[in-house]
Specification:
By secondary structure, the protein is mostly helical. Helix content is 54%, strand content 7%.
């Protein structure tokens, strides 16, 4: 496994477990497949699928500590504000606490993207990243859901 992939996986492994928000942004990106997962995405493009995913998870898993925005009807303006101030801000500015890895993501204006050195295109890398995100989500559920 390449050094950049190891750093990306470690960055995901060291997410704080405050909510499913960061993992869900990555899930949406990863759904685009191994060659497109890292393509830039606008906050507007993320807003609806992100709202739908978190709302669905909240209903299915009875998630605790979920923002009120997900219990109300969809509002693009509220979702864009939520995305910009919570997951995208932290994914693009906050190094990990344990190993102090710099964020592999960036937010420029209203476009979220993967830093060039972490744009890894391979089935293997994609699968490893998907597993890391799913594992982190499972850890979150163990603490913050009423399954």
């Amino acid at each position: 496994m390449g050094e950049r992939l190891k750093q990306l996986i470690q960055y995901i492994d060291e997410f704080d477990r405050q909510g499913p928000y960061k993992m869900n942004v990555l899930k949406i990106m990863l759904e685009r497949g191994p060659h497109d997962w890292h393509a830039p995405i606008s906050i507007t493009e993320l807003a609806r699928p992100y709202y739908d995913l978190v709302s669905s998870q909240h209903r299915f898993y009875a998630l605790k500590n979920i923002s009120e925005e997900f219990k109300a009807p969809f509002s693009e303006a509220k979702m864009k504000r939520h995305l910009k101030t919570l997951p995208l801000k932290y994914l693009s500015t906050t190094p990990t606490r344990v190993s102090n890895i710099s964020p592999p993501f960036k937010l420029v204006d209203d476009i979220f993207c993967v830093r060039e050195e972490f744009c890894i295109e391979s089935e293997f890398a994609h699968e490893r990243i998907v597993r890391a995100v799913e594992q982190k989500f499972e850890e979150y559920l163990e603490v913050f859901s009423e399954r």
